[in-house]
Amino acid sequence: MSETLTLSRGAPLSWETNPVLQVEHVFMRFGGLIAVNDLSFSVGRGDITALIGPNGAGKTTVFNCITGFYKPTQGMLRLQHAAGSTFLLERMPDFRISAKAKVARTFQNIRLFSGMTVLENLLVAQHNTLMVASGMTVLGVLGLPGYRNAEKRAIEKAKYWLEKTGLTLRADDPAGDLPYGAQRRLEIARAMCTEPELLCLDEPAAGLNPRESAELNALLLGIRETEKTSILLIEHDMSVVMEISDHVIVLEYGTKIADGTPTEVRNDPRVIAAYLGVDDEEIDLVEETLDEITEGTAT
Amino acid sequence: MAEATVKKHGPDLSAAVKDALLSGLIALGLFGPLVGLRTEQNIRNELVVQGRWGLLASVIAVIIVGRFLLLTLVWPAMAARKERVTPAEAPSPVRQTLSRWFAPASLIFLFLYPAIVVSLLGFQGSLKWVDNFGIQILIYVMLGWGLNIVVGLAGLLDLGYVAFYAVGAYSYALLSTHFGFSFWILLPMAGIFAALWGIMLGFPVLRLRGDYLAIVTLAFGEIIRLVLINWRDLTNGSSGISSIPKITLFGIKFDASPTGFAKMMDLPVSSAYYKIFLYYLILLLALLTAFVTIRLRKLPVGRAWEALREDEIACRSLGINTTNTKLTAFALGAMFAGFAGSFFAARQGFVSPESFTFMESAIIVAIVVLGGMGSMVGVALAAVAMIGGTELLRELAFLKTIFGDNFNPDQFRMLIFGLAMVGIMIWKPRGFVSSRQPTIFLAEKKAIAGTLVKEGHG
Known about the structure:
B: 2 domains, two-stranded antiparallel sheet, globular
């Protein structure tokens, strides 16, 4: 589908020329259920890419495949760092995807370490760096200065993200005590502390009020601006999707039905049909126009 | 119904009387046949029904009066207390200073304890208090602190912890009796062996969580015990290994020989010196456990353990190798059990599989849970309460003066102990110390309420 769209436009798209992640023909089957059906798309480097679709469309399944929590039944997920190294995510266990391929994620139902303080949450995120600094614990137990300096640097980085997410005053409070919106921001800060190449956000605006969504938009745009991190997000809140994303992919029943800029996607009749549904008498009409579009783009 | 009236208007006497009489009636129905009637065989082998009306009447009277008192006095008082307690009240300054000075003060007390006991009771009199109370409690403090790493920090419920204790004990017993190695060489070796067994247990159970993990670790503990019983060639079966060499202090033996400790120091011969030496040894071993645990909590591996207890999936999403993290927790916990085990073997001079039953594992888990998972001070307090408490309950002989000579207080020891445990769990459902101390802070160190801290799910 993306190929056809590209053809129709003539010039290649930014996410096709310089992708950070390429998903190629990914299938995910759970027994008889096909949750993701031959899905291919690219996430452009430095872009904010939104993955949208009705409930049960398979968005979170795609996320779980990218971050290694599921192994796709079939297909390839290629991640390319700006430095040039390439990782095949479908072959890596989940913790290595975060540690080596530098893909960080947040969760639809927030998963913080609720009994640990906000600062501790951000230090756990820097586990691998600190582990090396503590000489795999041995040097750390002896209390050598090398580890103490590394910990100071880790705290500085945590402070930086606390500042960015407006959580500095709550740094010593348990994460479980924070209000909902702050927990969402902390989860993003925690993911950013792993210094990701690609940040995957699973419904970051869910449950936020309009002001908090606006703050979230600013935070995400700031991350793209200063950290140059590519962002892939699942979202239902169209104010977030349409305002900040450069590229929108629409899924329905595990299949991609649209892929393009927010304006293109907004006017796509399939997307409108998938989201709003159509009246019985309109079905034929819509299908006719759809056929025309596909024929038109194919030829 | 009756409770509701109590809450609104205070004790309502007529309602309370009615309620109490109704309870009496129900009790009559229940206890009438059970308590009131008793069948006995007479000389002609006939069953004869006898009434025990006096006993029945007293049971019912107790229930009526008890119910009446509950309704009029106890419940209103409890409701009033609940209203008086304001939530989120800051702890009083007295309590704060108490909690700050508790750990150092008890440490000083522990170091002075043998001196205090000796000066009060003399060397011979101190034996019981140093050995049965001091050493015994400290062994369990050490085991509790070791298991605390696995259960309290990493949140992995291990019901077979005593297996590693057994590995340590048998390592020392076998290697010292067969090869004559000294305790000081075998102590670290026993720790390493136990840690290896910890990793061996850890690997197969990595994928298991919660109840399943608990069952498999329990089975592992039983396997070790059964191997010890049945591998007669090596372990001498259930008769155990005896005459295990004692520990020496830089080669100085604690016996009556001319080169022994008493002769060298020009002191009268007594077994108390050895006990006091053992006391300080186990105290130092326990403090080593505490020191390492406190240090590790502030290191990435310790934070990863706690994060694992809080949320394993989030851990993996942050690039933490949960396999290694779990294995280090198992290995370290097992290592401290191995140290304690080799000390146990040296102290007893005899080991047999009898000492490593499931009951021991259960007691250690109970110490960790009762103390408050993850809290060092809490676990130590719980060990004192559990082990010291059961030892103290042996001193119930005075009850004979009340209940007559036929009364056997030993039978009530475990009953009282069980009641006390139930009471504590009602009063402090998350253990003695439920709050968690953060490992690092920016501006102010605030304890984290126990309700927010997860218990782990394996």
